[in-house]
Amino acid sequence: MFKKPFTLENALYALALLIALGIRFLNLGVLTLTDYEAKFALEALQISNGVPGVVTTNPGYTHLTTVLFFLLGGADFWARFWPALAGAGLVLASWFLR
Fold first, then answer.
1. For residue 90, what is the enclosing H or E element?
2. Does the pLDDT value for residue 98 go beyond 90?
3. Sign, Cα dihedral of 6, 8, 9, 12
């Protein structure tokens, strides 16, 4: 089986991913949520606490965040976790499109 060697190109992509993760996750939970963010985080928090609610326009975010809130508790950091991960993951798009 042919195995590709780890090249300088791959190392630079890995470095870019680490920098993106650092930038996105540094001080992620320090600032308070904006009204737009808080609306969806509150939906997720209510569902994780067992309060029946209506999921509006972001069911993917709401359900993924509900799982985090249920397991780890409600916090601004966890409310921003999935968008930050997706934003940092965009660096990988260039690697897949090369």
1. helix 81-96
2. no
3. positive
Residue 77 burial (10 A CB sphere; 0-12, 13-18, 19+): middle
CB count in 10 Å sphere of residue 74 = 19
Split at pLDDT 50, 70, 90, the class of 1 is low
Question: Which secondary structure element, helix H or strand E, spans residue 15, and what is its range?
Answer: helix 8-25
CA–CA distances in Å: residue 27 to residues 30, 34, 63, 82: 5, 15, 24, 15
Task: Give the per-residue pLDDT at 55.
Answer: 75
